[in-house]
Every structure is written in structure tokens, then in C-alpha cells.
Amino acid sequence: MRTILHVDLDAFYSSIEQRDRPELRGKPVIVGGDPESRGVVATASYEARKFGVHSAMATRTALRLCPHGILIHPRFDVYRRVSGELHELFQALTPLVEPVAFDEAYLDITERVSSPERAGAAARSLKDWIRAKTDLTASIGVATNKLVAKIASDWRKPDGLTIVRTGEEREFLAPLQVNRLLGIGPQTEKRLHAAGIELVAQLADAAPEWLAARFGPGGLQWQRMAQGVDERAVVPDRELKQISRERTFPRDISNRNALEGALNELVDELIPSLREALPARTLTLKLRYEDLAIVTRRRTPGTVVTEDVLRPEAQRLLRESWDGRPLRLLGLGISNFIPVPDRQPALFDLPSRQ
Q1: Which of 47, 104, 189, 269 is catalytic?
Q2: 1.10.150.20, 3.100.10.20, 2.60.40.1090, 3.40.50.1260: which CATH number matches 171-226?
Q3: Which residue spans of the chain are classified as CATH 1.10.150.20?
Q4: Which of 22, 51, 79, 269 is the most exposed place for a label (fewest CB within 10 A)?
Q5: pLDDT at 347 (0 to 100)
Q6: pLDDT digits 0-9 by tens, 270-284
């Protein structure tokens, strides 16, 4: 039996801004792009969330909902540095760390703690380390698998700790709405509701034959999740094969301007890593639709992927790849790195041709 932690920093970007600028504490802070340039919200403080502001929302809409909101342009270089500090703490606890985002990771601590119910002290210590090192708070979910741990980390936010004991995974998930499960967006939720399934317990108890006949293989996959089953391992990123960023939207998005704005934010998040990494030849766009279908498109533009190349090529990939259906997730990455011998200057340091 495994012991998995899902660590999720609370309102990461906005909390860093409030930490670094004490005058912002207790105020509605919105971290996002320019409202006049299709900007979107990267995150919002809990004070702003009370007005309905959420990530991936158009910045213009967020400011309309929260007129007194304080708009801050993201400082991804700072967020990345703090993320590095966090991952040093994670690695001190276990080498089995799977980064998900700047502010989120899975940790497998099975070698240290034999079961989730014995993990309270380790999880509380990690929360204390995070606060002491970064002056930020984290919410942690502990369970026997990644699915349940992730849902548990959101249970008592902010600054929460939720432990789901071995054998209680199904019971923990049972009273939740089905949209809390991975990949069940608004359209799938509507289909399930139309079939009389609103709660996870109903999905877990449904006849498999009926689910398969009505929803296909996806229905059986949803049922396994509803029963608390998830066999995915925590996979450490030992070898740099790709640098990527993803955004899972709280609500599926079908508006092109909103998606283009979200993609621009992903570009902005990637740029600090792009400057430090080896030169890359390929960029990859990842689209996840509400029915869990994933589309991945790659482009090797014939030149090194510089900052000037990344943004227009990413937008072109989006135009060519997206079929207009609502998207649950958008991701962007660079890969196919070019080895650079010692003493050879990085290509990004060379003057560009005019």
C-alpha cells in the first residue's frame, strides 16, 4: 500500500505578491495579463475569489466582477525561484517527487511512512518547513493514490491537511459531485446528470454494463475513479526531456480569445525556463477536451525556439489544432534540446540577426 501526498500551495502567485508587498495583504489581488490584450487571470487571492474571480477567467471579466481588485502582472521568474525552494524541501523528504506545476507536486513517501494514517506528522512537518522557508501556506492531501490525494488537498483550503485512511477512499469520494473527478467537465457532467448520476456514489455503484453501453470505455474509467481506484505511480522527472506548462481550467473554455490569452500566459511562464535551458528545436501543444480526449501537436520550425519564435508558433499551433470544442486543459512545452559543448556560448546569448 502506498502513501501519497499531494501538495498544493494556496493561491501561489497572489500569495507571493502579498508576501513581498505587505500593503496588499487582505486585499483582492488579481494576478493576470493586460485586460486590453486578451489577458487572463493566472490566479487570484482568496479576497478576490469571494467576488467570483478564478483562474483562466478573462482579466477584463475579473475586474468587472471585482472593481476594486488590484491587478498585478505575473512575475514568473520570482514564482519559478520560489518553486525551486519548495522542491528542495520536497526532495529532503523523498526522492519520489513528481512536479505538476510551480505550486503543486505529488510525493510518494511510502518508504518513510507505511500508510496514510501514519503520515500526519510528516505532512505537518512539511507544512511547517514550507512556511518557515517561503512564508507561504500549503494544503496537503494524503491518501493511498494520486487521485484521492489531489481531491483531499482541496478539501480544507487554505492551509489544510486532509488524510484519507486506507480503505476509506470510496467513502471519502462518495458524497462529492461527479465533476470533482478528473476529466469530468460541464458537458460530461450534463450527460451523467441526464442519466440520473449526480454524485460520485451513484457513479461508483452503477452497473458496469449499463455504463459501458451508455458512455463507452470512458464510463468504466470514470467508475474506477469513483470507486477510489488509481494505479498511477509518482514519476520523478529525472531527465530533462521537455519543459512544459499546463493550465487546467475550472470551467471548460470554448472562447477563442480566452484560449489565446491563456496560451499567452503559458508562453510567459515558459520564457524564464527557456532562457536557462539548452536550445530547443521543437514546441508541443497539448489540448484536453471535456470527454478526456487528448490531442498533442508538435512543430519543429526549422530554427531554434527563441522567445520571438515561441509565441507566434504556439498561436499558430492552436489555430491549426483546436476543433472548436470546449477545452478542459491547455499545455505548451519545448523539447528536442540541442547539446551544447562546454565553453560554447548558449544560442540565446548570441545577438539576433536584424
Answers
A1: 104
A2: 1.10.150.20
A3: 171-226
A4: 22
A5: 37
A6: 887 777 777 888 899
